[in-house]
Design brief:
Layout (H helix, E strand, L loop, with lengths): L1 H30 L5 H19 L4 H26 L5 H25 L6
Helix pairs in contact: 1-2, 1-4, 2-3, 3-4
Amino acid sequence: MQIRKTPTILRWSAVSLLFVVGLIDIYYGNFYAGFFENLWYVMGSIYIFTGAVIAANFEPRFTQPAVFGYAIFLFALWATTALGTGAGLDTVAYVDKAIEALLVVNMALLIRSSRNPSALS
């Protein structure tokens, strides 16, 4: 019974994290980002869209690794530009990136459990 519940819990927690990060990105683009607000809107919209795709469990072998890579890419991009320019070093950005880090871990566990159902038993 545990084997069946774990991927479901991981999938729905990933969906929740995707929606939260997407809404935070849209909020950040609206109130904090300044010149780069459109970039934050796009990032937030992609997170919300992929949250809906993962909720529908459509092509999980493609979408789960894609979200995993996208989250790592955005985290690394933020880290390099924030350290280089000093932009994006506020509380909202830190909360956003902390949730993104949780999303990366969650997606790694979800990918692992969907590839090998007995991996998390």
